[in-house]
Automatic annotation (TrEMBL):
InterPro entries, per database record: GAF-like_dom_sf (IPR029016), HTH_MetabolicPath_Reg (IPR050707), Tscrpt_reg_IclR_C (IPR014757), Tscrpt_reg_IclR_N (IPR005471), WH-like_DNA-bd_sf (IPR036388), WH_DNA-bd_sf (IPR036390)
Organism of this sequence: Gluconobacter cerinus
Top-rank taxon: Bacteria
Name this protein carries in UniProt: IclR family transcriptional regulator
GO biological process: negative regulation of DNA-templated transcription
Stored Pfam families: HTH_IclR, IclR_C
Keywords for the protein's UniProt record, in alphabetical order: DNA-binding, Transcription, Transcription regulation
Domain HTH iclR-type: 13-73
Native organism taxonomy: Bacteria, Pseudomonadati, Pseudomonadota, Alphaproteobacteria, Acetobacterales
Length: 251
């Protein structure tokens, strides 16, 4: 996945676009919202937003509890077609499970989508392992995460500049990330703190499609003290790179 293909304005349904914007308003932990909350997020009038929300409610994609709306399980079907058409579970699952057992770490796959990355598969090392706050379908910054930087490093320079300029990073932070992006192709991975408050590191390794274009990244998250840099380079990166090689046909 990459940038959306350009379509003439005369062939675009603005009402449909607005409906999708309402659905996307529920991303990033936004739940149980009023019509006013949704209208504020999408930038439409309350009246227009109410019609869109009520339409989605009639179709079963949202439901109302005390005038607050939340997505229903039916919304999952919107992404299921993609996972099935690309055989994500069938092709990706066995590869990630095998390598996850070998290294004893949970492995995730995220794919490039416009100017963000979206998680599409996660294989936990054990039943208690989680995705460090992310779930399948959640998106992440190409500038602020190891997964994103492993992808962003292989995008054209002008696009990298646009991503950094719109990332919300300070000028100093953006310059630091830009330097990191220069190093990723040579070292083969990106490494970054999950957050300033945590003692977790995220490791991202780029994944390419059959045409040699960047398609996504594989990642693992682990405590800062678990591995030395030498161990990361010798014990973890090669396994993720092997995963990426096996997954070329699926990306």
């Amino acid at each position: 996945m990459d940038q959306p293909s350009p379509v003439p304005d005369t062939e675009i349904s603005l009402t449909f676009v607005k409906g999708l914007e309402v659905l996307r308003a529920f991303e990033n932990g936004q739940t149980d919202m009023t019509v006013a909350d949704i209208a504020r997020l999408v930038g439409h009038t309350r009246a227009a937003t109410r019609r869109l929300v009520r339409t989605l409610e009639s179709l079963g994609y949202v439901r109302s509890i005390d005038q607050r709306y939340r997505l229903t399980a039916r919304a999952l079907k919107l992404g299921l077609g993609f996972l099935q058409s690309r055989s994500i579970g069938h092709l990706v699952g066995p590869v990630l499970r095998t390598e996850s057992i070998v290294i004893g770490e949970s492995i995730s796959l995220a794919l490039l989508d416009a100017d963000e990355a979206i998680y599409v598969f996660h294989n936990p090392a054990d039943k208690s392992a989680e995705m460090s706050g992310h779930t399948i379908g959640s998106s992440m910054s190409l500038a602020r995460t190891a997964t994103g930087q492993a992808i962003c490093a292989f995008l054209p320079a002008t696009r990298q500049q646009t991503i950094l300029a719109t990332s919300g990073l300070s000028e100093t932070e953006a310059a630091y990330v830009a330097k990191n992006l220069e190093d990723v192709p040579a070292q083969g991975f990106a490494l970054r703190d999950v957050s300033p408050q945590s003692d977790l590191l995220a490791l991202g390794v780029p994944a390419f499609n059959v045409n040699g274009q960047i398609a996504g990244a594989l990642s693992i998250v682990f405590p800062t003290s678990r591995y030395s840099m030498t161990q990361i380079q010798k014990d973890l990166v090669p396994h993720l790179q092997r995963c990426a090689t096996y997954l070329v046909s699926a990306l």
